[in-house]
Automatic annotation (TrEMBL):
Taxonomic lineage from the root: Bacteria, Pseudomonadati, Planctomycetota, Candidatus Brocadiia, Candidatus Brocadiales
InterPro entries: Piwi, RNaseH-like_sf, RNaseH_sf
Protein name per Swiss-Prot or TrEMBL: Protein argonaute
Highest taxon in the source lineage: Bacteria
Recorded family membership: Belongs to the argonaute family. Long pAgo subfamily.
């Protein structure tokens, strides 16, 4: 409808916005004995971890934890693990948002015994860590730290019984001297060692004289190729060959008493840290804390993304990546084809050609069949963070030829924002429908069950730019909302993105540092 308003000098004309809106019901999660609840923490506390139909208890009853790191931090980690076998409390001011942690033991919620001790402990000498930190070249420093931890992990991997998960205790000095932050678009070191500062000072004082000191030349050679650019990714990459998931632990995780941080960064209370930590550990050990209760069986969700291989000198090369998640919550990672792509005004986001798109989805289907006794999925849902190009879409379609139903969903962000009347932000699950295939969806927002909006600033909606497929739009949106509850790195109520896309960049950066000759692990828990 067009509205025209006349004025003495001009005639104004504009279009009245046309849209529909509503709120989706909060997706339910399944816990022990098939009991259901909308909140992960409440559901776990009441009913325990997910158990299969006909079983009274979850599939895993014990977790063997290996621990590597400097001696003092290993002691701190074991003390913290012992304390978390019992209830961990907090201030109790927001009992729904931040409930007490009930403990991890043979009772609810996890019904699982933690096993750790001298057999699964491997120390890294503090002097070796100090020597590594003193290395001037940043990448060489990272390489040596990774080597120290991998040597210790390799020893633990040969113990019997083998650990289910290995905890890597990272001391504060390693974090400070082996971390870069993006400052004004440039990755900068957050802290330099005394030796590094001395070398830079000497070079600055003698900058009119050549040649520069040898140590200065070493310090400045950080752009030259070395295996790792990041400690986390280096460890995740190298440890894959031992087929044991790892969990990196910072010193602040092990604080037994809540402390107020002097910095602006907020620190989670001890109970929340315990909830998040042990939910992740439980999944890495092979358990399912919960599952989606209302997703039909036989559905395979696939997230498509891209990364640049750090081993390649050609900066125009991109590699495709698929993250696949079954209706049971099992997650897998597949590396696709490498292709040339140059950003241009037409599209900065890479797109697949027909052959690569067809091959990637075919690999996903083959993996699904291997994991499900030869059965094909009943339905495939592809999520992608950019619009589909014609060849790309055709490749996906043809690869799904034998799949009864399929849906292809493209996400984006154009800065469109809506506001709810009053002082509260929009409810989580609020949708705005512009057309049959274009929506806004609030994955974060006010949550009535929590009596709170658990986030800073105003929540930003995600936009569904395209939907091609067989399912009604409300089914597609409800599934997106449900997949925000499948991040087992945390026990939070929900996350800001569906799990198909939430960790694509993180997984891609790990694969980017994986040598070509090394086959990546398929299980998603190795990338968490």
């Amino acid at each position: 409808m067009n509205i025209k308003r006349k004025n003495t000098t001009k005639e104004y004309s504009w279009k009245v916005p046309s849209f529909e809106c509503g709120v989706l019901s909060e997706p339910l999660l399944a816990f022990g004995s098939q009991h259901q609840h909308i909140d992960p923490k409440t559901g776990l506390a009441l009913y325990g971890s997910y158990s299969l139909v006909g079983q009274d208890k979850p599939s895993i009853t014990s977790i063997i934890l290996g621990i590597v790191g400097p001696p003092s931090m290993i002691s701190d980690a074991e003390q913290w693990l012992r304390s978390c076998k019992n209830i961990v409390t907090n201030e109790g001011k927001e009992p729904f948002l931040y409930p007490h942690f009930p403990g991890i033991n043979t009772g609810l919620p996890f019904q699982c015994e933690l096993i750790f001790g001298d057999t699964w402990r491997e120390q890294i000498k503090q002097e070796e860590i100090t020597k590594a930190i003193d290395i001037i070249n940043f990448n060489a420093k990272i390489k040596r730290i990774v080597e120290l931890y991998i040597e210790a992990i390799e020893i633990l991997s040969q113990r019997e019984p083998k650990p289910d998960v290995i905890l890597c205790c990272i001391p504060q000095e390693v974090i400070e001297y082996c971390t870069k932050k993006n400052i004004d678009g440039v990755n900068r070191r957050i802290k330099l060692s005394r030796k590094e500062r001395k070398v830079l000072k000497e070079a600055k004082m003698g900058q009119k004289f050549f040649p520069f000191p040898k140590d200065y030349r070493v310090l400045k050679m950080e752009d030259e190729y070395l295996p790792y650019e990041n400690l986390y990714r280096g460890l995740k990459t190298e440890v894959m060959r031992f087929s044991i998931p790892t969990q990196l632990i910072w010193p602040k995780t092990l604080q037994l008493i809540d402390q107020k941080e002097k910095s602006k960064r907020s620190t989670q209370d001890a109970a929340t840290r315990a909830w998040n930590f042990f939910t992740g550990i439980y999944h890495k050990a092979g358990g399912s804390p919960w599952r989606l209760a209302e997703i039909e069986s036989g559905v395979c969700f696939v997230g498509i993304s891209f990364y640049r291989d750090l081993h390649e000198k050609n900066t125009t090369l991109r590699t495709s990546l698929a993250q696949a998640f079954t209706s049971a919550g099992d997650g897998y990672v597949l590396r696709g084809n490498t292709f040339e792509w140059e950003d241009d005004e037409k599209s900065k986001s890479p797109h697949l050609d027909y052959t690569s798109a067809y091959s990637l989805i075919t690999d996903v289907i083959d993996l699904y069949k291997r994991q499900n006794r030869g059965s094909l999925p009943n339905r495939i849902v592809v999520h992608k963070s950019s619009r589909f190009w014609e060849d790309e879409h055709k490749g996906f379609e043809d690869a799904c030829e034998n799949i009864p139903r399929k849906d292809f969903v493209a996400f984006g962000w154009r800065g469109v924002q809506f506001y709810r009347p009053g002082t509260y932000p929009p409810l989580r699950g609020t949708y705005i429908k512009f057309s049959e295939c274009n929506f806004l969806l609030y994955l974060l927002g006010y949550i009535p069950f929590l009596r709170s909006y658990p986030g800073p600033r105003a929540p930003q909606p995600i936009e569904i730019l395209e939907h091609h497929g067989d399912s009604p739009w409300d089914t597609v949106l409800t599934e997106i909302l449900a997949l925000t509850k499948m991040n087992w790195n945390t026990a939070d109520f929900a996350c800001g993105k569906p799990v198909t896309l939430a960790f694509s960049r993180k997984v891609g950066l790990i694969l980017a540092e994986l040598p070509k000759y090394q086959k990546p692990k398929e299980e998603y828990r190795f990338y968490m």
